[in-house]
Design brief:
Elements: E1 18-21, H1 26-37, E2 42-46, H2 51-58, E3 62-65, E4 77-80, H3 89-97, E5 100-103, H4 104-112, E6 116-121, H5 126-139, E7 145-147, E8 159-160, E9 166-170, E10 185-188, H6 196-199, H7 202-213, E11 220-224, H8 228-239, E12 244-248, E13 255-263, E14 266-273, E15 276-282, H9 287-302, H10 307-314, E16 325-330, E17 333-338, H11 343-364, E18 370-374, H12 379-392, E19 398-402, H13 418-426, E20 432-435, H14 441-448, E21 454-458, H15 466-482
Parallel strand pairs: 1-2, 1-4, 2-3, 4-5, 6-9, 6-10, 7-9, 10-11, 11-12, 12-13, 17-21, 18-19, 18-21, 19-20
Antiparallel strand pairs: 7-8, 13-14, 14-15, 16-17
């Protein structure tokens, strides 16, 4: 995969019937749904059936399981992602027929034409911050359009075509997609080296965010100053006269939170913006989510939402699927699932999980443990961050490591989950279990867990199947215990 170059796009209503290859992916399904909602003939294929494909079918998208050139039908535009291989039979046929072939970022940019674009970028926290912003605007009556990288927990969907003038998107930096979008308000949650297989160096990666923030269409940059990488960029942008709103816990933040306290499974703090001050209460845990909420608040204020209305709207945010999502609380054992797959994301998730574990211990009087079940994602990322993964896994009482989910990458000889196991052991974690096969994880975790424990599955691959399977085993345990 290489970095993408931005292209000129037509408005969505001018591109004719559209077909999505791998439409079931998190980045594709929401875009396809929006084209269907606009009344544009929309179809898509994926390698296997899923609940996502079934939901798209109900939303008016013609879906196919498997790839076949005939499935292009009368499509004028074919949409692909960076993960689609050049020899995909549908892509080969589209090229043979001379159809318009767009990366998904171009298809999304076409939907944004004529709207006030809000693009949320950053190494971590994009999905939650985008979702918070969409919910804030929706709850405050702005009726935005949005496309999020994960479904909202309340609706089960990741996109909507609103009647308002704001269009909020999650802007992916991994392949340079974030440079494609017509962005009026650019949000940067943090900048920490990742996706170096595409960018080459950490310096080039950081320069990509500078390019994102300084595109001619950008009018405001909302940027996190608690993170070193984004603070460095914020200082540079301000020196150059770029209009920025700094947010975070830092003293010099324009939108600042302080006086943090846990509230059940959520968190609360005092938020300050100029002369406005009030209590920010969230239903999701962690200081990182307070920071995300400050970014969403800043966007809301820029788009005309009042202080009290913004705080009230944020209090209704219930999270997105796979972001510290509670799967079950059964037999005295809580199981959460989280998309975290970079060391910094895992640190944030485990820090929030540790607080939840301690709160549970205080409530029940048990001495529950934090059990982290991690599936590394991508061979190249595992090589790049093995030591960092090992260090962060020491935040758990027990580390359960799965083999690597290679996703779009071919295996690299000698690179397996054991790299993370070895690194975790070197970092000082004694309680380590290596379970290479993901379908063995539910049984392994059920055997390890005891009442009071909190289990969290971590990774952006298919480790998400583990929680529901484990929930079934815990239900059986509870039924036996009740007899």
């Amino acid at each position: 995969m290489t970095l993408l170059n931005p292209i000129d796009v037509l408005p969505a209503d001018q591109i004719g019937p559209i077909h999505f290859i791998a439409v079931g992916g998190s980045g594709m399904s929401g875009i396809a749904r929006m084209y269907a909602e606009l009344g544009i003939p929309t179809s898509g294929s994926d390698q296997s059936d899923s609940s996502t494909l079934q939901a798209l079918q109900r939303a008016g998208v013609t879906t196919f399981v498997g790839h076949d050139p005939a499935q292009l039908g009368d499509a004028a535009t074919v949409v692909i992602s960076s993960a689609i291989r050049a020899d995909n039979v549908e892509l080969v046929e589209a090229r043979r027929r001379g159809l318009r072939i767009w990366h998904r970022s171009a298809a999304l940019a076409a939907l944004m034409v004529g709207k006030r674009g809000v693009s949320v970028a950053g190494t971590h926290g994009k999905t939650t911050t985008t979702a918070m912003t969409a919910v804030l605007l929706s709850e405050a009556g702005a009726d935005p359009s949005y496309v999020i990288g994960g479904p909202l927990s309340t609706t089960g969907t990741s996109s909507a075509a609103g009647r308002g003038d704001a269009f909020v998107i999650e802007a992916d930096e991994s392949d340079g997609s974030f440079l494609q979008y017509p962005t009026e308000i650019a949000v940067i949650t943090n900048i920490e080296a990742d996706h170096l297989v595409n960018w080459g160096t950490s310096e080039a990666y950081a320069d990509g965010f500078r390019a994102f923030a300084t595109r001619p269409v950008v009018r405001h940059v909302v940027i996190n100053v608690d993170d070193h990488g984004s603070r460095t960029l914020a200082d540079e942008l301000e020196d150059e006269g770029v209009r920025t709103i700094r947010y975070g816990e830092s003293e010099d933040a324009d939108v600042r939170f302080h006086s943090v306290e846990a509230r059940g499974n959520g968190v609360a703090a005092t938020l300050v913006f100029g002369d406005d001050e009030g209590e920010l209460v969230l239903q999701v845990p962690g200081n990182h989510n307070l920071a995300n909420a400050c970014a969403a608040y800043a966007v809301g204020r820029l788009l005309g939402i009042g202080h009290e209305a913004a705080l009230e709207a944020l209090s209704r945010f219930e999270g997105t699927l796979r972001r510290f999502q509670l799967i079950t609380d059964t037999a005295g054992i809580r199981v959460f699932d989280d998309y975290a797959h970079h060391p910094t994301e895992i640190r944030a998730a485990l820090t929030a999980a540790r607080r939840a574990t301690e709160a549970g211990n205080e409530a029940t009087g048990l001495r529950g443990r934090l059990i982290a079940c991690f599936q590394p994602h991508l061979y190249t990322r595992t090589v790049d961050f093995a030591d960092e993964f090992g260090e962060v896994m020491t935040l758990a009482d027990v580390a359960v490591i799965n083999d690597i989910c290679g996703a779009r990458e071919d295996p690299i000889p000698g690179v397996t989950g054991e790299l993370v196991v070895d690194a975790t052991r070197r970092a000082g974690q004694d309680e380590i279990v290596y379970v290479p096969e993901k379908y063995d994880l539910p049984d392994a975790l059920n055997e390890i867990a005891r009442p009071g424990d909190l289990i969290i599955t971590l990774g952006c691959g298919d480790v998400t199947i583990v929680g529901p399977l484990l929930a079934d085993l815990l239900k059986q345990r509870a039924e036996v215990g009740g007899e």
